[in-house]
Amino acid sequence: MNPESNPHRRSRKPRRSKVEAESLDRAAVPVSCDQGGFDLGGWITTARPLDQGRGWLWWTRLSRESASFFEVPPSKHRLVLCPFHADAATHLLRTSIWDDGSIWIVPTPAARDHWRNRFTLDRARGLVRPRPDRVWDFAELWEHIGQALPKPPGRLGEVAALALIDECLQTARQRQLLKLVPQDIDLRGYRRLLRDQFRLWTLSERRSAPRSDQSRTTSSSPATPLSEFDQTAEEDAFTLFQLYRRWLETNRFEDAAGWVVWASHGLEHHPQVVRLRLEPETVAVIDPPAHGPVIRRLLTFFRDHTRRLELVLPDDPEPTLSEPYRPWNALKQQVRAWRFVENRVDSPADRPEGLAHLNATLFRLDEHHLPRHDQNQGVQILGAPSGEAQGLVAAREALRLHQQGIPWNQMLFLTRSWDEASDEWSRDLNACGVPLRSLRRKTLSEKPVIRSLLRIIRLVAHDWPTGEVVACLRDRLIAPTETVFEPDERDTQAAFQELPSLRFSWLDRALAADAVARTRLPGGLEALRVGLTRMTQAATGEPLDASRAATASPPRNLDQNDRFGRVRKARHARIALRVLNWLAARLAPLNAPRTRPAHLDALEEVAEALDLTQHTDHLHDWSRFRLALEEDELIVRIDAEARGQSPPSESWSDFANRAEQIARDVRFEPGSETGWDSDHPDQATLMTLGQARGLKAKVVMMANLGRGAFPSHRAAEALLANPFGGSAAGESELDAIAIDNESSVTDWFPTQETDNLAFAHEMAAFLRVVGTATHHLILIYPKADLSGHPLQAAAFVEEVCRRFEPNLFPDPISRLDAVKEPNLCLTRSDRLVAAVGHALRGEVDDLRRLARDPGFLGALTGTSRALESNQARWHDHEFGPYDGMICSEPLRRWIAHTFAPEHWVFSPTQLESYLLCPFQFFARYVLGLITVENSDELEPDYTESGRTIHAVLEHVHKIHPEPLQLATPTQSWKQALERELEREVRHRLEKHDPPIHPVEAGLRRIYAERLVRQCRRYLNQLEDYLARAGRGVRFEKVEAKFGERNIDGTLINPLILGKASERVVLQGTIDRIDVKREPDKPTLSFRVLDYKSGHVPSLKEVRERGAVQLPLYALAVERLGLLGTPAEVEDFGYWDVRRDGWRAIKVSDWGALRDSLEQFVLEAVARLRQGEFPVASRDPQCTAFCEYRNLCRIQQVRLRDKRWSRVPQLVWPKADTTIKTDSDSHSNSTNPQGSEDDLQRRFDS
């Protein structure tokens, strides 16, 4: 007979030290024994084992007055039954003898670290406790067992398991083994679902496929990973599971669940080997998973090969409270069949009255007959709106309890699962001053260095898409080591000079990212290089390559602001080109087919070159990422070796796809931070219910307990569909899968129950939440959603409320208001808002208190200045210093100097900008603000389209000033001119550099057709014009310039208004000047035309918005003699290229308008030079399109109805009218392709 397997074998007891004996003398533990007729309710103060041959004799002192001997039954193993709220682990310490050979097994890593820390402190005080290194959770226990067994199989990690599932899917598809596949089978989430189901089937050691006659609806079946799919889908999943297990068995590998099953079988086949390795003397197994073949083998081994086994299982002696403990019934029956000594742990007597009442009555079958309790000490039910309010309420209670003396490490914040709500809760608690750390298992993609590496991987794999390039340039970790940083960007000459190389700054990367976005290209390294070079050419006005872009001269004859803006954009493009070349040189070796290890080596070299792994944490994250990628290739490598082949190479694109999937799927434990109080005594902890098993805390909080949180919808539906159970015979249940989705694999143990235990698991999980708290339980439910619609609390929360009298809990908060709820103002910003809100009511004490705090002084000072400025703006109907009226004398002198006639040459467009909105002129020309363009490559560029139309019309009308003379016997003048226009459009587009991207080539074709269509529409308008308003005219001047700057910087023929220092110097370009000689007039009459491809102002807009462009052009033609001969003004107007054609503005008295115009311009420029830039736009719809609408706050000005009393006024003659030609009907009747306007509108949309 094997002495190791003899349950009655007497073992030699170790000699106790004096310190241990003293510690036992000091111990005081309750004993309750319900076998052999012994039931002791006193306290043991001294315990000494005496071997008398008949079992164990214990000498105990029942009281100070008397003592007696009693006999304990000879069974050496004990079953300890305790409710969820009892502290069974402490009970074991007080009622059993522990030494260095003892093993302490707890359910979770958090409980493991807690007891290790506690045992370390106890041993330092001289108490006899198990060694801290022999305190294990179940995962660590299986690791020790597996390491002790001979010939272990290979370990398949989480990444390799997902890769194997992919391989099985491909094999099943090729062999046509699948009957029905869900639509989302190609999604990564379905692989994870299969992985979870495979774990369940592996741990339950399932060998047969699901029966086809078995109902598998969600409402009547247990909660399994594939419950939402039908029977056929589950049969397909089991087919994949068979392929999965066959591969593992063939190659002698095991995944995490298979490793546990293999190790459990090793306990039966090699018990002596495991016993020699573990050396189990006294073993405590606390709160193991529900019954199953794995846990049965484990307990059988400890029963036969340990001196004493202490098994703790949840149970309650109250018969009406048996339902939450039903999942452990099978395990308890098995242990009772082994004749373990059975003890019960009484409920703790030091619980608050309300919490003790809740522990004793919640979920009792006769709860409706029990009276409600009138005291709620230790229990709080709070309601608050969803979102931020949940965190504020929790933080308020946590801070209140901490002020009462409860340390942070005795506070647990529990969540049902890791989701957006839990992440937001964590952020809000930290923002309110609660030192909270989360035990959420993060994915690799959440680590900054992995995120940066994934950007680099996508950058190369997808051929440098513009969006990824911009993201890389803005990534703070991808930092180049050299740059050309130009501190004085207003110096246009210095902007194109090579400066010494400095380190790249965040501003350099931001400017480079903006320049790349402005290229309007979809991507491509060479395409972006050419596009950035073109941006430099646009500023220099001459063809350049990338090497010459740094030393070219700026173009001449440009408006100063336009010149400055183009030069600045070119500087940004040059920085972007340098950064892009720097990055491309380092990433060039990546894009090549190679094996997975070679890919990883190349990526590691790039990471080192970019300094991504110089930090220790970054290097650790990279090591995790590399190991995961190497593990992903394990399946392919093993299959290749089995066929006698070398591992295949993969393209960089395939490698990038796998890397992204792995980074999103792989989650890792927080490492050394799994302990909840061992290393962080000054921090509270946020964890899931599964992670909190085995822990006790003085304060337990749980938020977001809305309808469907407890119980879950699936468990509630299963209960309603099958209230008596028994419909899912033969199916397995999970102990922890219904509790949270972050449980480790050791929690996934199935039971052999035949009933539907989903609802019982839900009740057990909620009782664990209640039982974890020893002093304070705080449950927070959402009262309303973010839109204000009311919500219901979870059903179990309502059940808690029914255990107490009404009105014991505070009224829920329906709306988060910092002023009405000052106790929720926990963040700095909320405290400021509340203080200011109270001050508006006249309660200034809070504001004074904050003003004395140096931390709030800066914010309050800025707020007071903002209030002063707002009050000053609101005080008067006139514009003041806070509305754009510059009052500082140094600033006014600087503005007068900048816009003096010696330094600034105005254009009519600039004057119109000032007259339309002075503040817009201030932002654009004084401050030089350039807005960021967010348009993509597919959005039409209307500015470039208008510029091209102007250039085409200029060229054609210069060659053919009289279009009617183009008529020949074989073709009309219109046909000839149409050929000329189309040829010029094609020529201009072909003259550009060749397309640098296929998308650009397609866009150019669309752009060309669009321009040709506009030219055809223009010909119809021109035909109508020549037949009506333009009969007998000649196109005398096209693109007539005045005020052009010479090579030496002097102006050629500018238009000067006024005298001395008040004069205004003007320059401009007139699109077209038509002349006509009337027989009855001695001088020529001329007409000024301005092409408009966008909005065309009406006469009302011309009068009210200060449209001075056309009158100034007419004045320049008349005064500067641009026609070379005396001429008088006939009229002027706009040519609407897109729709109506010629629109004339008739002037009845040009002399009066001319004098008024000159005085008007001088007065407006004088206001400008005096620093008057009020927020006074003449366009009521300016906020719909203005690029500076976020700066001016014009709505406040309009609400106050402010007026600019000194606004310049241009007096127009009363008889002026706008004449609209009848070109629409003529165009539609003569255009063979139908309505061009309709085509254009459809194209634009």
Word description of this protein:
It comes from Isosphaera pallida (strain ATCC 43644 / DSM 9630 / IS1B). This protein is of the alpha/beta class and 1245 residues long. It has 7 domains: 3-152 and 262-347, P-loop containing nucleotide triphosphate hydrolases (Rossmann fold, 3-Layer(aba) Sandwich); 154-251, no CATH class; 354-441 and 670-801, Rossmann fold, CATH 3.40.50.300; 445-665, no CATH class; 822-875, no CATH class; 906-935 and 1033-1214, Lambda Exonuclease, Chain A; 937-1028, no CATH class. The chain contains 42 helices and 31 strands. The strands form 9 sheets. Strands 8-7-11-12-6-13 form a 6-stranded parallel β-sheet, with helices on both faces. The protein has a 6-stranded parallel β-sheet with strand order 14-21-20-15-19-16. Strand 3 and strand 4 form a beta hairpin. Helix 16 (466-474) packs antiparallel against helix 17 (506-518), helix 20 packs antiparallel against helix 21 (616-632) and helix 31 (908-916) packs antiparallel against helix 37. The longest helix is centred in the last third of the chain and has 30 residues, at 998-1027. The radius of gyration is 42 Å and the shape is elongated.
Key descriptive features of the protein:
six-stranded parallel beta sheet, PDDEXK-like_dom_sf, 1245 residues, elongated, hydrolase, Rossmann fold, 42 helices, disordered N terminus, nucleotide-binding, 7 domains, alpha/beta, DNA repair, exonuclease activity, disordered C terminus
> Compute the gyration radius: what is it?
42 Å
pLDDT < 50 runs, ≥5 residues: 1-74, 213-223, 481-503, 542-558, 672-679, 726-755, 1222-1245
Spatial ordering of strands, largest sheet = 8-7-11-12-6-13
Largest sheet: 6 strands, parallel
Please give the number of β-strands.
31
CATH architecture of the largest domain: 3-Layer(aba) Sandwich
- Helices, by number, come to 42
- Total tally of structural domains: 7
Text of the CATH class of the largest domain:
Alpha Beta
What is the share of helical residues?
Answer: 40-55%
**Mean of pLDDT:** 77
Class by SSE composition: alpha/beta
CATH T-level fold name of the largest domain: Rossmann fold
Task: State the shape.
Answer: elongated
- What amount of the residues lies in strands? 5-15%
